[in-house]
Design brief:
Blueprint (H helix, E strand, L loop, with lengths): L1 H9 L2 H25 L6 H13 L3 H34 L5
Helix pairs in contact: 2-3, 3-4
Pfam families: PGPGW (PF09656)
InterPro entries: CHP02611, Uncharacterised_PGPGW_TM
Protein name: TIGR02611 family protein
């Protein structure tokens, strides 16, 4: 049903422009709002990804940006976990840790 609605929108140039603009505004507000919330406790990154997902429904660059950001965050969290494990192992090996 949604695909048929999207095809119908594509056939009407003005409606298509309004739809793409609306998607851009909503997705942009979500992404920027999420970035503002990142330093605060809560779902900042989730809102950023939600904004990029909304933008990704119409814009290829947003899909690429979301994939890149996910890869970067995956690498960061892997590094962070390895760093914490290394520190925990160093504390366990030290005479003060026992």
């Amino acid at each position: 049903m949604l695909r048929r609605a999207r095809v119908w929108i594509d056939r009407h140039p003005r409606l298509n422009a309004a739809y793409r603009t609306s998607v851009g505004v909503v997705g942009g507000v979500l992404a920027v709002g999420g970035l503002l919330l990142v330093p605060l406790p809560g779902p900042g990154w989730l809102i950023v990804f939600l904004g990029l997902a909304v933008l990704g429904t119409e814009f290829h660059w947003a899909r690429r940006a979301a994939a890149w950001l996910k890869r970067v965050l995956d690498r960061f969290w892997a590094w962070w976990r390895a760093r914490r494990a290394h520190k925990a192992a160093a504390r366990a090996d030290s005479p003060e840790g026992a």
